[in-house]
Specification:
mainly alpha; 80% helix; globular
Amino acid sequence: MSILSLVLILALFVLQMVCTGKMEAEIWQGGRESKRRTKKSRLLKMVCSTCFILIALLALIANTGFTTFAGLMLLAFVLSWFGDLFLHFDKMFPHQAIGFVCFIAAHVIFIVAFLKEIQVLDPSQKAFPVLWIIVVLALWVISCVTLFLWAKVPVGPLMVAGLVYMLILCTMFGNAIRLGIVVWNEGIAGSALGTITLILGALGFFVSDCSMAFLKFSSKKEYNVNWFIDNFNLYTYYIGQSLLAFSLMFIS
């Protein structure tokens, strides 16, 4: 780990947070009841998304290693980048639909990356142990019931899509926790930081996507156009992605 890498990563994170704030200011320039995406807000968003890819690359350079796990993580970050691009358009079809597909693919790649790294670090681990299946399903049921009732998600195709997405999201989060525990137990240099950044990063991504139930799936307009939820969604997302990217300095 070099001081230069850490300084550059910190600078990228600060830039990302500043651009997130400017993007939100641009989106809500008409007031907290008026949400409007512009070319400027899209540009600022893509700067933010590019930052977590650059953080991942710097973390890998500092770690002096490029593994299958690192390659899969980078692929997931790139898919997230495209997801961010397409979700920033106002039209549901085809733009936002493509964005959701990109994020589903990104989560699936994250899951594969976590499972492969678990097997590398601890070959005795089963791919899908019964306990973790129970934990993931419990998290899925609790999350869906809580979010869908709270956000007033109507019964229909959107709810089905939300249920499928939440299952993939919970699987990603559950396996991030599994990998974090395995990394911690390995006791290698930086294992504690690897565990903390990985789990906190996955948690940020998880709660950010949970807030999408209000922004995209709710039947209540006050949730669809909500300054607080929108800010919460973006800040937790970018902090989560950046922490996941930073974890490559300690895990890959």
